[in-house]
Structure formats: structure tokens, C-alpha cells
Design a protein that fits this description.
Elements (H helix, E strand, L loop, with lengths): L3 H29 L1 H21 L5 H14 L9 H20 L5 H14 L3 H11 L2 H20 L1 H4 L7 E5 L6 H6 L10 E5 L8 E5 L3 E4 L18 H16 L32 H15 L7 H12 L3 H24 L15 H6 L10 H14 L6 H4 L2 H14 L1 E4 L24 E6 L7 E2 L5 E4 L7 E5 L10 E2 L8 H12 L6 H12 L18 H5 L4 H38 L5 H20 L3 H4 L1
Parallel strand pairs: 7-10
Antiparallel strand pairs: 1-2, 3-9, 4-6, 5-6, 8-9
Length: about 625
């Protein structure tokens, strides 16, 4: 039986023989074939030219141009997938790159290719880049970094061609992009056009149709919903059986053992009553799957009862800021690491990824980079949160402290503030001063908000006060569905309302400007503004508050701008009512003065005494009667 060792030896011998044979063939061709000699001479000159191009004081444009050429050369090289193959590949690439660097400038271009390929399979790229910076020639390091930058640009350029997937029936388009080459040529070539991307349909939808469904990237419960009634992972309402079981337990403790129902008649508590973190007993889940998924992704870092006190300090700090952004960002990085670990495990086990699309080559972070965001100024509390976040996750997420700078943390907050949605639920407790959060979220207020969530596709939907779609949560979780509110044509832009569309135009525009820096000029806003300007004002000088001809509140409220007209009506009506009341008071004072003058007259003392007695009797009778306000 032939052993594996014998096969390896035979393979090695074969490789050596093949190498010697090739050297002999190469030497023969070099000596006897003129065409081969000319080809070899051209290749040598090309290598020398490349070395001259990338050596010395090469400009940034020259380095980028050379990096692009090198990327095209290695584009067809396949990278290994299993950990063992990656390790061998990495060692071979680094060894070859070092040898090429030792050969001088003529080997720098190929050395950069080898180091770049080694970087793509190394588990901690940031660490390897730092090693390259210290150990490789400066021009080689610049080439490697330029290749990385060019690859990112190429990837970003084709991002919107492959995402969203075709089965979602939507696509992201730049509304500022020229539709034709002729139109682009006619415009000034130096004009810088800022992308204005939005989500468009690829087919028709009828009213009530679901355009697509989407899982959340990251979500969390609002503080008001962290009462044990909602799942801390999927945000689902915990089954009522859990609450019933807890009520039974509390009643049994209050009433004593003798008051409990017989075991045969007592209803068995739901298994979901045990779905809570067995360490902190604060996070509650609707299923064992949610509990395990949450722990694997992020709760292992955020659990307040972990061995380290950092998690508790982080939770208290986030609570003081009245923001959910710190928790969402911590969860996001945990989810990011968990997804990559699962991908690596699947490759190591040889598990094939089902229905893999071109969009799957993009990481969650790369998806996030394509979103709009609000530019925020870093605050002192942000610095505290960032420092504590580093302490919390740096051991499990290598390179996190170097990657998440103050500017990048502010950018993440800005992306959450602009793109996150309110997740609606049922039986949501009212928000109080202690549970209030300052985070911005897209919320049309059709129902109470139980949580906040971020979505990759839906973040590209733009605002309109008269939307054609609405975000709904049919499963009662953070999984979203985009439902058509009216018929939608193919290639029509999708709009959702970021605020309550039933508010008056001034309130809507103020909220949009303060929260999203949007100066809304949608058709509904323009129509509401014109209606408000056309509404006639009420003239105070021509209104008699006691006149039946004064328009009623219902009549004024029926005007095109009811809120504005009603406010004007109330103001004028109150003014006239006050004037009428003052006039009545003055008349009553004059009558009292006349009565007082008559009572001082000596001509009829008996009559005056009788009148005074009658008035006293009437006043006593009136005091004995209950007032209208008391009887009401």
C-alpha cells in the first residue's frame, strides 16, 4: 500500500525534475530562439520601467494607477477558503513577497501583489498592515495601501448594481445621475454632482401589496418596554402564558400554600416563562432560540452580571445619556463579529452557503457605509461611552479601539439617527420622564413604539408627508414589511413618512428640520401652506360676542386650515367676551351706586328699611341654594 509520505516524496521529486527540465528548456530557448530572446528582453525592460515608475518620488496618481494595474493582474487568482489552506497560502505569499523585496526595485510591484493577497486571508488585517508599515520598503507599503483603496472603490462602484437582491423588486438609483450620455456631455464636465439616491420599484404594486420584507441589522427595546413583557432580541410580545404563570406564582406566595389549586387542576406554566438570561435575570426572551442568538451575538458582552463590572458600568452610563445609540452600536459590533465567525465556521466545516448572491460578498459594515447620515459633533459623553465600549469589547474584538475612533463613533450615531425606524407593537407602556430617550427614529405614529431598529434596504426610502408605502410589522417582531398605501407603478420612487403625517404643516416641517435637517417641499406641504394663506382672518371689530350670527367653532374648524382658524376664532371670541363682561360689570356698579344714593334719602325712611329687609332675605335664600358649579 502506498503511504501518504511516499506520495508526498514522489510529488516533491516530480516537482524538482519538472523545475530542472524547465530551466534546461529556458536556457535552450534563450540561446537558440531569437523571438524568445526578444520577448524576454521586452519583459525585462517592462519590469525595469515598472520599477522606475514606482521607485523614487512617485506621485499619488502614479501609485494609484499602478495599483489599479496590479489589481487587474491578480483579479483571476482564487483565494483559499478553509483555515488550513489560508494559513499555508498566507505563509507562501509573505515568504515570496520578502524574497521579491530583497531582489530590489524590479521586484517591488510583484512583492506588493503578494503582500496584498496575504492581507486578504489574514484574520486581523489592521495588525498586519502595521507590520507591513514597519518591515517593507516605503514604496511597497504605499502600493499595498493603494491597492486596498482601489479595491474598495471598485467594490463600492458596483454595490448598487447587486444590492438590493432582485427578489426584493426594488433598486437604488441616483436621482442626480444623468439618464443619457448626451445629457451628460452637454453639462459642464467640471460640475460636481452630489449623489441623491432613493429606492425605486422594479414592478407594479396594488394598494395593500407587500413590496418586500426585511430582517433588521440591529434593534433594541425602548426603556418603557423593558418591563419583562417584550423579547429583548426580536422585540416580540412575550406570550400571555408567561404573565399568567407569574401572576399565579405571586398569588400563591401571597395566599400561602393552602390556597393553591390542586396540582391536577392548575394550568402548567408556559416553557417560555424560563426564557430569561440565567445570569442577570433582567433580559427576557420569547424563545430559547432568541436567548441563545442574543447571547452569542452581543449579550455575552453586555450582560450586567458578567464577571467584569464593565458591563454594568456601561449600562449605567448609557442610561444616564438617555440614548439608545451606545447600546445599538455595542450590539452592532457584536453582531458583526458573530456573523463573520459563523461564516468562517461554515467554511471550515465545508458547509455550502445556500443561494449565495453577489450582494453576499459585502460585509454588514460595507452596507452601512452606503447609508446617509447626520454629521454630529462629538460630545464629552460620547468620549466616555467610547472608552467604556473599548473596555467592554476590545478583548473579544481585536483592533476595535484602533478602528472605532471618535469621528467614526459620531458617524455611526449619525447613521442611526437618520435611518433607524420605530418598531410598533401592542400594549406598549407610555413613555415617562425616566424612560424618555433622545434618539431620532422614523415614526409615523400609527401605533405605539416598542423599540428601534435599523434596516439595510429600507434606510434608502425617502420622506414624503403623503407617502405611498408604510412600514409594518406583521409578525409582531422587528422583521419589517413595506406595504403599499396606494397603487405604485414600475420604476416609481418609494416614500415613507418620517413623522406623523396628520400633524399640521408647520409642526411637521419643524420636526423634519430639527431631526433630519430636511426642508420639506413635498406636494402636501405646499398645498397645506397655500390653504393656510388663503384662510380668511377673523376681524375683531366686526364680531359681537353675543350675536347669533358669529360663526360657530364647527364652522371655523371646517375651513381649509382648521388648527389655525380655530386658534384665531378662540382668540377673538375671548377678547370680545371679556369686553362684554367688563361692560356688564360697569352697568351693575352704576345700579348699585343709585341704590346707595336712594338709601341715604331722609324722605322715605320706612320704605328704604322695608327694601333693605327684602334684599337681606333674598340674599339669605340665595346663599342656601347650591351653586351651578357645585351641582355639576
Amino acid at each position: 500500500m502506498v503511504s501518504g509520505k511516499n506520495i508526498a516524496v514522489a510529488a516533491s521529486v516530480t516537482a524538482v525534475v519538472a523545475g530542472i527540465s524547465y530551466l534546461a528548456y529556458f536556457d535552450y530557448k534563450r540561446r537558440n530562439d531569437p523571438k524568445f530572446r526578444r520577448k524576454l528582453k521586452r519583459s525585462r525592460k517592462k519590469a525595469e520601467k515598472t520599477a522606475e515608475k514606482i521607485s523614487g518620488d512617485a506621485s499619488l496618481d502614479e501609485i494609484n494607477s499602478q495599483a489599479l494595474e496590479l489589481l487587474n493582474i491578480i483579479a483571476q487568482e482564487k483565494l483559499p477558503e478553509s483555515p488550513e489552506e489560508k494559513e499555508k497560502f498566507f505563509m507562501a505569499q509573505v515568504s515570496r513577497g520578502e524574497a521579491l523585496c530583497g531582489a530590489g526595485p524590479s521586484g517591488y510591484a510583484d512583492a506588493a501583489c503578494r503582500f496584498f493577497q496575504a492581507l486578504k486571508v489574514y484574520p486581523n488585517p489592521v495588525e498586519l498592515v502595521m507590520i507591513y508599515q514597519k518591515t517593507t520598503p516605503d514604496i511597497v507599503f504605499k502600493l499595498v495601501m493603494a491597492m486596498m483603496a482601489q479595491e474598495v472603490q471598485q467594490k463600492q462602484a458596483r454595490y448598487f448594481d447587486v444590492f438590493p437582491p432582485e427578489d426584493k423588486h426594488v433598486r437604488i438609483k441616483d436621482k442626480n445621475k444623468k439618464e443619457s450620455k448626451k445629457q451628460a456631455k452637454s453639462d459642464d464636465a467640471k460640475e460636481v454632482v452630489v449623489p441623491n439616491r432613493a429606492l425605486f420599484t422594479t414592478k407594479e404594486f396594488a394598494e395593500g401589496d407587500v413590496v418586500y420584507e426585511e430582517d433588521s441589522v440591529v434593534s433594541t427595546l425602548l426603556p418603557c418596554a423593558q418591563n419583562g413583557q417584550f423579547c429583548h432580541h426580536c422585540l416580540r410580545k412575550v406570550p400571555e402564558a408567561v404573565d399568567a404563570a407569574k401572576e399565579d406564582d405571586s398569588e400563591a406566595k401571597e395566599g400561602g400554600l393552602e390556597e393553591q389549586e390542586p396540582a391536577a387542576e392548575k394550568q402548567e406554566p408556559s416553557k417560555s416563562s424560563a426564557f430569561e438570561c440565567d445570569k442577570c435575570h433582567e433580559s427576557v426572551y420569547c424563545s430559547e432560540k432568541c436567548r441563545q442568538d442574543a447571547y452569542d451575538a452581543y449579550h455575552q458582552y453586555l450582560c450586567p452580571s458578567s464577571s467584569s463590572s464593565t458591563a454594568r458600568e456601561f449600562a449605567e452610563l448609557a442610561k444616564k445619556t438617555h440614548e439608545l445609540a451606545p447600546v445599538l452600536i455595542a450590539k452592532f459590533f457584536g453582531i458583526l463579529v458573530d456573523r463573520e465567525k459563523k461564516k468562517e465556521l461554515a467554511r471550515a466545516l465545508g458547509v455550502s452557503e445556500k443561494q449565495k448572491t453577489e450582494a453576499d460578498e459585502y460585509t454588514t459594515w460595507e452596507h452601512l457605509e452606503s447609508m446617509r447620515y447626520l454629521e454630529l459633533i462629538p460630545t464629552a459623553s460620547d468620549a466616555q461611552v467610547l472608552r467604556k465600549l473599548g473596555e467592554l469589547m476590545s478583548n473579544s474584538v481585536p483592533g476595535l479601539n484602533e478602528f472605532v475612533t471618535s469621528e467614526r463613533y459620531s458617524m455611526l450615531k449619525g447613521k442611526l439617527d437618520y435611518n433607524a425606524y420605530a418598531v410598533h407593537g401592542s400594549d406598549v407602556p407610555k413613555e415617562t420622564e425616566s424612560t424618555h430617550v433622545s434618539d431620532t427614529m422614523r415614526d409615523d405614529h400609527v401605533a405605539g413604539a416598542v423599540g428601534i431598529s435599523l434596516y439595510l434596504i429600507s434606510s434608502h426610502i425617502t420622506h414624503d408627508c403623503d407617502p405611498n408605502v408604510q412600514i409594518v410589522f406583521p409578525e409582531g417582531t422587528d422583521k419589517a414589511a413595506i406595504k403599499a398605501l396606494k397603487p405604485i407603478a414600475a420604476d416609481e420612487e418609494l416614500h415613507i413618512s418620517f413623522v406623523d403625517p396628520s400633524l399640521d404643516v408647520e409642526t411637521r416641517r419643524k420636526q423634519l428640520q430639527s431631526s433630519y435637517r430636511i426642508s420639506c417641499k413635498c406636494a402636501k406641504c405646499e398645498a397645506d401652506l397655500k390653504a393656510a394663506e388663503a384662510t380668511p382672518t377673523v376681524n375683531a371689530d366686526t364680531i359681537d360676542p353675543m350675536d347669533d350670527s358669529t360663526p360657530s367653532f364647527a364652522a371655523v374648524a371646517a375651513s381649509p386650515s382648521p388648527a389655525t382658524a380655530a386658534a384665531a376664532f378662540n382668540s377673538e371670541h375671548e377678547k370680545k367676551f371679556a369686553e362684554a363682561t367688563l361692560e356688564q360689570s360697569e352697568q351693575a356698579a352704576e345700579q348699585a351706586a343709585e341704590q346707595a344714593a336712594e338709601s341715604e334719602s331722609p324722605e322715605q325712611p320706612e320704605q328704604v328699611a322695608e327694601q333693605a329687609a327684602e334684599q337681606d332675605a333674598e340674599q339669605d335664600a340665595e346663599q342656601e341654594k347650591p351653586s351651578a358649579q357645585d351641582s355639576e
